[in-house]
Design goal:
It is built from 14 helices and seven strands. Helices cover 48% and strands 12% of the residues. The N and C termini lie far apart (67 Å). It has a seven-stranded mixed beta sheet with strand order 2-3-1-6-7-4-5, with helices on both faces. By secondary structure, it is an alpha/beta fold.
């Protein structure tokens, strides 16, 4: 009896040891990536590209369908309220006067149907709404995807509608939600964790810049991360993005108006190098920084590399402009570049930990 009990206890102990060893091996192959960024970050686009690369589950497709319907309803509610506030609803033809009431009765969590779709499409094409958007472009906020979805409204309202890849990429991210996406890269499993925009943290410091532009905001946030005591053993992958919009803007508006110390004129390469210098000046902690370039909007990723050899966390930080070798956010090549940068940084950190490379700040 005693011997049998002892054998069972030993077998149980060995099973636990094997499980612990297996968990340890698995953790060494898993790289958790924490995504953080401003309200206009492209991190949601990155996550959607990752999901598209590995394939969307039926549950994820259903979630995107609901999110698209909610985006359409929320956007048209904003248009109706702006129409009523501006008094332009008086321009509506007699047969269209009922449309604002019909649309405002639709709740955000309602699914689109043919009746709602007809009301939205009809209102969207009225001269009153056209004038509203033309005359109040800076005051009426519409998500970038709203116009795209309005033009597809009849298709979106079909009972059998399934989001396309383009629909998925244009779907705004849900705010104040935490999402997790897994992706395999060689022998590594990367776990992307998106915690949403830093709105709650940003309110603590945004008052410092009453007329804060997005680049100033990016610089301030980058400084708060790179010099944080929580990331003392962190490597940074720095991405500059949105070169097309940036290049067009500095041709119309002198960069020196907002950054007086800049003297490079409308040259996008000189401007990009200037902002790289600005970001590097914030690196008082002297962390390793690896510059990379893509189209996107500001964001950064935290990579806590938790395995033994890869004990140095990595931050992937993406800002608003880019250098010459570029790709677009709506292109899976963007995701592959991100993975390549992550992989390269892991190798660099492993070599440093093995004393093969000297620690070096670029």
């Amino acid at each position: 009896m005693g011997a049998s009990s002892s054998r069972l206890a030993r077998a149980r102990s060995e099973a636990i040891d094997r499980q612990l060893k297996a968990d340890s091996l698995q953790s060494k192959k898993e790289v958790p990536v924490l995504l953080l960024g401003s309200d206009h970050a492209s991190k949601s686009t990155l996550v959607k590209h990752i999901k598209l690369l590995r394939g969307l589950t039926p549950e994820e497709l259903a979630a995107f369908r609901s999110a698209i319907h909610r985006t359409v309803i929320d956007s048209v509610h904003g248009i109706v309220l702006a129409l009523l506030t501006s008094g332009l609803d008086g321009m509506l033809a007699e047969e269209h006067r009922h449309l604002p009431d019909v649309i405002l009765r639709v709740k955000l969590d309602n699914a689109l149907n043919s009746e709602i779709a007809v009301a939205i499409e009809t209102l969207w094409r009225t001269p009153a709404v056209v004038r509203l958007l033309d005359d109040n472009e800076d005051e009426v906020y519409l998500p970038d995807s709203a116009v795209y979805f309005f033009t597809q409204i009849q298709h979106l309202a079909q009972p059998e509608y399934t989001p396309t890849e383009e629909d998925v990429l244009r779907t705004p991210a849900q705010k104040n939600t935490i999402t997790e996406t897994r992706f395999s890269m060689g022998g590594l499993s990367i776990r992307f964790i998106d915690v949403g925009p830093l709105r709650s943290e940003r309110k603590k410091w945004i008052h410092c810049f009453e007329s804060c532009n997005r680049m100033r905001e990016s610089l301030y946030l980058f400084e708060s991360i790179i010099n944080s005591r929580w990331f003392l053993r962190t490597s940074i992958i720095l991405f500059f993005t949105e070169v097309d919009a940036f290049e067009a803007k500095i041709r119309k508006i002198p960069l020196a108006r907002y950054f007086p110390e800049y003297t490079g004129g409308p040259d996008v390469i000189k401007a990009a190098k200037y902002f790289l210098w600005c970001f590097m000046q914030e690196n008082r902690a002297r962390l390793s920084v690896y510059p990379q370039c893509v189209f996107a909007c500001f964001l950064f990723l935290l990579l806590p590399l938790i395995s033994g050899s890869f004990s140095v966390p990595v931050v992937l930080f993406i800002s608003l402009l880019s250098l010459p070798f570029l790709i677009g956010t709506n292109d899976t090549k963007c995701v592959r570049l991100v993975f390549a940068a992550i992989k390269e940084t892991i190798i660099q950190n492993a070599l440093k930990n093995c004393k093969i490379l000297d620690t070096q700040v670029l």
